[in-house]
Write a structure and sequence with these properties.
The chain is α/β, with parallel strands linked by helices. It is built from 22 helices and 32 strands. It is elongated and about 95 Å long. The relative contact order is 0.08. InterPro entries: PELOTA_dom, PRTase-like, PRTase_2, PRTase_dom, StiP_N, TRSP_dom.
């Protein structure tokens, strides 16, 4: 294939190094040349039809793989083809191998991988001697996949020496001998000597080895080419010869604001593998074919209407799913659609029509690779005239590093006006689509949390050994760019300063009686109106101390020993459906009372109502009442509350150290399977700073003195009209517009929510009701430490409102970027 000007894309290398291609007439139409940044080999054969380094029409890419598969079928005959298994090579040929398998017929496909998967034992492996990353793992879900005696079809993008094929066949033949192997590639570039080695090896093991390729030839390499190639790479990488490495963006002080990333929910079918790392069966293929039109339609809807040139960009081994999405998209949009994939392969970029790699984007690995951090690349994207890029990654690669200022999405946004992100859930063997017979029992202290085992059972899974924390500023930027969800990572658990701890204890001393009265009042309302023996289900983690206190009140006043569990609810993702299933299996849903600390604008109230309705529709389980019981309802969002005053609830002042040493809950597809509880961490290492029992005991100690007041308050509440007015939501919408934020999610009303903003997010400013007193002492201290202005406002419906920085980038006005010191 030639460049648009008609120049062969191997000309530049051929002229400077004397490298040439000799062979079939269409060889140069399939391949160009570039220079590797690899001491083992000077040149790189760059395929125009593979969909890796060069964006190409997905129909062309897929068509070449299908054609090779059909040729293999003709070679084998129908009977042997039906018994064949296809094995593709990571990372470059994973998509090609899958396409070959599609052309060959309804059979199983597996590709090697360089990503170990926890809990999956390798069924084999082999080395790729010339590569920059050599170790290949074989991780089939069904180990018998490689144990049959039918033909094994091995697919790679090119054959340069044949060493990789020899290593593979040798390793697999020792375990499970076969009579026949078929080796498939886009191009066969072996020398006659290399070709002879494969024939000799086949005779030695007593098997037939056939080879199918779209084109064949050899590479002519002059003497000293390796040294000359190194010198040329060094010359261009030094910047003195006009190289086109676009990895470094413009000065951030002059660069225009990065447009937000649009996340697209593909609604990938549950349990459908994202590729063939663990095997891909004919049944999987049928499910994928049925789902592709709908997924492509969702992508098309998210694209800008005026996009004329669109790239669907896969991620390393994840080639086939992006390719098929791109091919389907190509059929339904007027835009020119191209497909390519990011890569580990380090290649020199030169902006010349006669060179195959015109530009490169460099970014850090974002899938926590087993071989450690390193650079990754996207070639021929910058300067290619794309109006939009759809980045398709699997869930383990959807990390803060992906959304970081130097991550892939940021690099794309520097060169393409519109960036979309689609995340495919990574398939892990053992996660079945069938509902498990039994869900795990709740976690309890002291193994999980510093609360006593009878105080609360956590319907969560323990992720304490997983690193999930990211700097506050990095998380904020990723969240606001539209990529990362706040529940996919955790803020760092900062420790309070001595001054801040003094404020906490002072606030607790001042408010313990008021808090005890609110606890008693809401518990009495629950017992009278909801159930005489309620099952308390707190929304982790802010609701959990409240649930424990309500349980203690019921025991103190009525001698009741109420069950109490903590479950996860995530804004935008709903409540943990598996937790609801466990509750429905062990209790009457009509007795369940959901508990939280306070309401702000009522977002969680709405989230819970929608989630319960969805659960009823999906599972057919009815009876759960979605109304939350809270201590304080300043937003007027619920009917069951202790007070509607916006006052300081001291447990809002801290993070895990007042919540049983438990983190905020986590929901990430690679960690939480379809039949897992949501996750959380137990910060055992913070035991020395734990104030959780002290907080509970301080409030419960005031129960006897507030009994009469609770009786009176409960009587008034039961007689009052407590219909929610949603005044808080209206106030938030007004503030959002008045301050030019235009996003209610960045407006956090109430003392509790404002405190969360100061501790976990990047605050812009704090609005304080004029004359607000000691309830805001801790907020004022946090604001002073973080350089955040506090603005007094007359007639504010809340004691205070925290505003998260809109359109945040690090260094933005209103936050100094320092770590929180509280």
């Amino acid at each position: 294939m030639n460049d648009r000007a008609g120049t062969w894309t191997g000309t530049w290398v051929a002229e400077r190094l004397g490298v040439g291609l000799v062979g079939d007439d269409d060889l140069t139409g399939l391949l160009g040349l570039a220079l590797r940044r690899n001491p083992k080999r000077a040149h790189l054969l760059v395929s125009h039809v593979l969909g890796k380094h060069v964006p190409q029409s997905p129909s062309v890419i897929y068509g070449h793989g299908l054609a090779l598969g059909r040729r293999v079928r003709e070679l084998l005959g129908a009977e042997e083809a039906a018994a064949a298994v296809v094995l593709g090579y990571a990372e470059t040929a994973t998509g090609l191998g899958h396409s070959v398998a599609d052309g060959l017929g309804p059979l199983a496909y597996l590709h090697s991988t360089r990503r170990p998967v926890a809990g999956v034992a390798p069924a084999g492996g082999f080395e790729e001697s010339h590569s920059h990353a050599t170790s290949h793992l074989l991780l089939p879900e069904d180990p018998g996949l490689l144990a049959g005696d039918g033909p094994l079809v091995l697919v790679d993008d090119e054959f340069s020496t044949g060493n990789t094929v020899l290593n593979t066949v040798r390793a697999l033949h020792e375990r499970s001998p076969r009579r026949r192997y078929v080796v498939v590639a886009l191009v066969d570039m072996r020398s006659p000597a290399d070709a002879g080695r494969l024939e000799e090896f086949a005779r030695a093991i007593g098997a037939r080895v056939d080879l199918v390729a779209a084109a064949s030839g050899t590479v002519r390499l002059p003497d000293g080419v390796l040294e000359k190639g190194r010198e040329l790479v060094a010359q261009y990488e030094s910047g003195g010869a006009g190289g086109s490495d676009r990895s470094h963006p413009a000065d951030p002080r002059t660069r225009p604001a990065r447009p937000p990333v649009t996340r697209v929910d593909l609604r990938w079918p549950r349990g459908l593998p994202d590729g063939a790392r663990h095997g891909f069966t004919p049944a999987h293929r049928a499910r994928l074919e049925a789902a592709l039109p709908g997924m492509a339609a969702r992508l098309a809807e998210a694209l800008p209407a005026d996009a004329r040139r669109v790239l669907v960009l896969g991620c390393e081994e994840l080639m086939y799913a992006p390719l098929r999405l791109a091919r389907e998209l190509e059929q339904i949009v007027p835009a020119e659609v191209r497909s390519s994939t990011t890569t580990r392969s380090p290649v020199l970029a030169v902006d010349d029509p006669g060179y195959a790699i015109r530009s490169r984007l460099v970014f850090p690995a974002h899938d926590d690779p087993a071989d450690g951090p390193g650079e990754r690349y996207a070639y021929n994207v910058a300067g290619a005239g794309f109006d939009a890029v759809v980045a398709v990654v699997d869930s383990p690669a959807d990390t803060p590093a992906l959304h970081a200022p130097d991550g892939l999405l940021a690099r794309l946004a520097e060169h393409v006006p519109h960036v979309l992100l689609a995340v495919v859930p990574s398939y892990v063997p053992g996660a079945r689509s069938e509902r498990p017979v039994m869900l795990p029992e709740p976690l309890r202290g002291p193994a999980f949390s510093s609360y006593a085992p009878d105080e609360v059972g956590w319907l969560l899974q323990d992720l304490s050994d997983v690193t999930l924390e990211a700097p506050t500023e990095e998380r904020e930027e990723a969240i606001q760019q539209g990529g990362a969800h706040y529940a996919e990572s955790l803020p760092v658990e900062y420790q309070p300063s001595e001054q801040y701890q003094e404020l906490f204890h002072a606030a607790l001393d001042a408010s313990a009686a008021r808090l005890a009265q609110a606890v008693g009042a809401v518990t009495e309302v629950v017992l009278r109106e909801r159930s005489p023996r309620p099952v308390l289900v707190s929304l982790a983690r802010a609701g959990t101390p409240v649930g424990i206190l309500m349980r203690r009140w019921a025991r103190f006043r009525h001698g009741l020993d109420l069950p109490h569990y903590a479950v996860s609810i995530v804004r935008g993702r709903g409540i943990d459906a598996n937790a609801l299933r466990w509750l429905a299996a062990h209790h009457d849903p009509a007795d369940v009372v959901f508990v939280d600390g306070w309401t702000g604008k009522g977002a969680i109230s709405r989230e819970l109502a929608a989630a319960i309705a969805g659960f009823e529709a999906s599972d057919g389980v009815t009876g759960f009442d979605p109304e939350i019981a809270v201590l304080a309802d300043p937003g007027s969002c619920v009917r069951t509350y202790g007070t509607r005053d916006d006052f300081l609830i001291p447990s809002a002042c801290l993070n895990s150290t007042v919540s049983g040493l438990i983190s905020r809950t986590v929901l990430r597809a690679d960690l939480v399977g379809p039949h897992d509880f949501h996750g959380a961490k137990f910060y055992r290492e913070l035991a020395g700073a734990d104030l959780s029992p002290a907080f509970l005991d301080a409030v419960a100690a005031r129960f006897p003195e507030v009994t009469d007041a609770v009786d009176l308050q409960a009587k008034e509440l039961l007689a009052a009209d407590r219909t929610p007015t949603w005044a808080g939501w209206a106030a938030v919408e007004r503030i959002s517009e008045e301050y030019g934020i235009h996003d209610v999610n960045l407006v956090k009303p109430g003392v509790g929510e404002t405190t969360r903003v100061m501790l976990r997010r990047v605050p812009w400013k704090v609005l304080a009701r004029a004359g607000a007193g000691a309830d805001l002492d801790h907020v004022r201290l946090l604001a002073e430490q973080r350089g955040v202005p506090v603005e007094e406002v007359e007639g504010l419906p809340y004691t205070c409102v925290g505003l998260i920085h809109p359109r945040y980038t690090r260094g933005a006005t209103g936050a100094d970027g320092r770590a929180v010191t509280v």
